């Protein structure tokens, strides 16, 4: 059964993983390997299905139902997704969530929140997120739905 504590841990882990990928890039490491591990550990691409709509995608490549598509969005460098420059490479040095609300439903948590990103250059953006986290058979919590959008600007 999913709990409130599990929701907060899953959200914080997601935020920490954004920073980890950018840090690997800025430290001269291998952000692709870090991002691939994040996708295996925290998204259900390897054993299930994931619905992923990144913030800055469009056209025929809006949705990322494959691990390769998600990896391209995170770190770029894919011929299949030439418009992806690697959102997580900024690097983002601080990421946190706010205004979260959720529904717990058995082994699922359905979550909405704002996620704030601070860049190394002091830039600050925030996006609206929806996640569905699932407690998988191996006991790990993984994303099975990740939808992201920029806030409406009338």
Ordered list of secondary-structure elements with their pairings:
Layout: H1 4-26, H2 31-42, E1 51-53, H3 67-75, E2 92-105, E3 108-119, E4 124-135, E5 141-149
Parallel strand pairs: 1-5
Antiparallel strand pairs: 2-3, 3-4, 4-5
Number of domains: 1
**What's the rounded overall pLDDT mean?**
96
Helix content: 25-40%
Low-confidence stretches: none
β-sheet strand percentage: 25-35%
Task: Please give a structural write-up.
This protein has 154 residues and is an alpha+beta fold. It has a single domain, classed as Roll (Nuclear Transport Factor 2, Chain: A), CATH 3.10.450. The chain is 29% helix and 32% strand. The protein contains three helices and five strands; from the N terminus they run H-H-E-H-E-E-E-E. It has a five-stranded mixed beta sheet with strand order 1-5-4-3-2, covered by helices on one side. The longest helix has 23 residues, at 4-26. The termini are far apart. The model has no long low-confidence stretch (mean pLDDT 96).
């Amino acid at each position: 059964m999913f709990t409130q504590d599990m929701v907060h841990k899953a959200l914080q882990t997601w935020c920490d993983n954004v920073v980890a990928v950018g840090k690997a890039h800025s430290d001269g490491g291998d952000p692709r390997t870090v991002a691939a591990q994040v996708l295996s550990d925290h998204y259900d691409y390897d054993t299930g299905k994931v619905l992923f709509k990144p913030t800055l995608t469009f056209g025929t490549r809006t949705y990322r139902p494959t691990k390769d598509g998600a990896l391209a969005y995170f770190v770029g460098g894919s011929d299949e997704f030439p418009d992806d420059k690697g959102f997580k490479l900024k690097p983002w040095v601080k990421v946190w969530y706010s205004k979260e609300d959720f529904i717990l439903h058995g082994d699922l948590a359905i979550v909405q929140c704002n996620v704030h990103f601070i860049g190394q250059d002091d830039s600050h953006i925030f996006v609206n997120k929806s996640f569905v986290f699932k407690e998988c058979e191996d006991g790990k919590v993984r994303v099975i739905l990740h939808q992201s959008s920029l806030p409406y600007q009338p």
